[in-house]
Fold this protein.
Amino acid sequence: MKEKKRILNDHIRADKVQLITDEGENLGDMSLSEAKQKASDLELDLMEMWKKWDITIIKMLDYGKFLYRQKKQDQKNKQKWKAPELKTIRITFKIGDHDLEIRKKQAEKFAASHHPLKISLMLRGRENQYGDIAREKITSFVASLEELYKLESPIKQSGNTFSAMLKPIK
């Protein structure tokens, strides 16, 4: 992201300015020299906020603190926009009940982090003739997760693989 160029202190070019404190209090219109004097008395910086025709709005603030707050706010915004990663759980045709419980606990952890989930079941060799049983198995597993996840689309079969896409319930 490109850093916006800020005009500070001696680089401000204006005759008449409107001065605003760091808290947002408007001190009114005055000459630039008066504003510089007030800022130097309080050991603060002047930053140009907005310029229009004959008046320039400047803010009196501690520029170091301003940059620090801006950096922290950017970091917070960046964390908010982090996209959840698609997680995949693979189950097999012959999976045991205990292993299904373990996969369910994994799904609960993913749901706590708001990750979307893909569940896949792949048939191998002689298992291919039991497609209806495999569909029941993946359907029952998805049903066991219905309090955490919502089925995005019906369970799909592509060749010998069944898959289901789930999204977390907020």
